[in-house]
Design brief:
Blueprint: H1 92-99, H2 104-112, E1 130-131, E2 137-141, H3 146-151, H4 157-168, E3 178-182, H5 196-213, E4 217-221, H6 223-230, H7 236-239, E5 244-247, E6 253-259, H8 262-267, H9 272-284
Parallel strand pairs: 2-3, 2-4, 4-6
Antiparallel strand pairs: 1-3, 5-6
Helix pairs in contact: 1-5
Length: about 290
Amino acid sequence: MERLWLRQEPAAPSRPAAAQAQQPASAPAAGAGPAAAPAAPAALAGAPAAAKASPAAAPAAAPAAAVRSGPPPRPPARTREASPDPAPAPTPAEVAERVRDASLEELSAQVQACTACGLCHGRRHAVFGHGGQPTRWMVIGEAPGEQEDRQGLPFVGRSGQLLDAMLASVGMSRERDVFIANVIKCRPPGNRNPKPEEIAACSPYLMRQIALLKPERILVVGRFAAQTLLGTDATIGNLRGRIHRFKDESGREIPVVVSYHPAYLLRSPSEKARAWQDLRLACSQL
């Protein structure tokens, strides 16, 4: 049995935020004027009106202008016209209709532009798939991880190296005769499990890929990929060890072998012996 084992990865730094102080503006209040003098007695009514006006009778002084120490005030914000609502996300049935007659190149372009579920908002790259053509085997995984999202390629990093070693142990290569893809084409946040609505939205792309590539054999790695392709909720333990049949769009039946995901094998090396059995089972049907 070939050696299928590997290595490790790094981490990233963070930036400090700058704080900005602001000076309050001060405005001195206008002072109160002196008290008004008492009114002249009635006996002086006939006196000439040339009596001097007291300071209290003078009109009140205008308050002093506030002194500004900060930047000039901003002009009032202009109100924007309401932007039109974004187009609603296409339903799985609409996605299936769009891809029905697409070539592999057209299908890839549709995957890159897809907005059928919320995963499109957080992706760097949609991961269409990669591999040799004509395709003898198709390997189907669950969803892209961090490295796949960065590079736009399926199964890179440590799990990809392990998968390549597993394929090489039975004389297969992704560069020559194996096409590798995922059920979900965009990375779920934090590598969480795909949601049912995300699987439903992405499945038409995978079904069209299978119909176009016409693989002789499908190796499904991971529980979600196996359950999606075979339409079951059975566990990996119940699905592996036997040949299943998948019927593509044209009605052609393709043998399917279920095995463990390479990322799981890295965490549980003792299961590699069973993965080797699955590879041998796939080869025995060729």
